[in-house]
Design goal:
Blueprint lengths: L4 E12 L5 E7 L3 E7 L18 E7 L7 E10 L2 H5 L1 H17 L7 H16 L5 H15 L21 E5 L4 E3 L7 E4 L1 H11 L2 H4 L6 H19 L15
Parallel strand pairs: 3-5
Antiparallel strand pairs: 1-2, 1-4, 2-3, 4-5, 6-7, 6-8
Helix pairs in contact: 2-3, 3-4, 4-7, 5-7
């Protein structure tokens, strides 16, 4: 019989299983996405009391068995709470959307340290950053997310030809062909040539430096919308939890 093990994870989904039990979805470092059956989770003296809440970072005691659709979890301890998301609807909806992206990107049981670290870091950004910086940080998250998926071309280069993109005028954007294109005619639509270079500037900075960056609002919003398209094309689906529209007004 396999012994239980401890794993660190972030609660991204929960649902009722029975009058006393719950199903919990975690994004974990060691096992990727896990669907867990928490027996007795709703009883008064449950070992899960106060832990099964969205965006809690928890230490879970689990038993992993191959070919089992629902793994068993025997207890959880909260390592980091979710207070910023309970107090602010914009931050809560942003965290919901981010967790949906991770759910789509991570198959059940597949370890991906880079995506886990990015998810955990993004929740810290979205929970602590001033509201006016949330759009810039969400743009950085999308760029790093695409990078982790191996779907982000070298900033400033056309993914089709390898040629350097112009810095002025127009380029074309087409998610199916990799994003920003140098072609004067062809697939996609014309967008300002400044946008892929702005993406490169944002990607090159760490979050503390990004707090001092103040890009023009209109190009940042346009770049962000294009990255949303690119991510959804790569995942083959739009997340069930949409981005909060007020993000572009924050």
């Amino acid at each position: 019989m396999k012994r239980t093990q401890r794993t660190c994870g972030i609660v991204v989904r929960r649902s009722e299983w029975s009058e006393s039990s719950r199903i919990v979805s975690l994004i974990t470092r060691e096992h990727g996405r896990l669907s867990l059956l928490a027996k007795g989770a709703q009883r008064p003296k449950s070992p899960f009391l106060g832990a099964i809440d969205l965006f809690h970072v928890v230490e879970a005691r689990v038993k992993i068995q191959e070919r089992r659709q629902l793994q068993l979890v025997y207890g959880m301890k909260v390592l980091q709470g979710n207070r910023p998301f309970r107090k602010d609807l914009l931050r809560y909806r942003l965290a919901c959307h981010t967790s949906e992206l991770m759910r789509l990107a991570l198959p059940e049981g597949r370890r991906d340290d880079e995506l886990f670290e990015l998810f955990w870091q993004a929740l810290r950004w979205f929970g602590a950053a001033p509201r006016p910086k949330l759009l810039t940080l969400e743009t950085l998250f999308r760029l790093r997310f695409l990078q982790a998926l191996g779907a982000l071309p070298t900033p400033g280069l056309c993914p089709q030809s390898g040629r350097e993109l112009p810095r002025t005028g127009q380029v074309r954007f087409d998610p199916e062909h990799g994003g920003f294109l140098v072609r004067e005619t062809g697939p996609g639509r014309q967008v300002p040539a400044r946008l892929p270079w702005l993406a490169g500037e944002i990607l090159a900075l760490d979050p503390s430096e990004l707090m001092r960056l103040d890009p023009p609002a209109a190009p940042l919003r346009q770049l962000h919308r294009l990255l949303v398209e690119l991510v959804e094309w790569q995942l083959g689906s739009a997340p069930l939890a949409p981005l909060p529209p007020e993000l572009h007004r924050s």
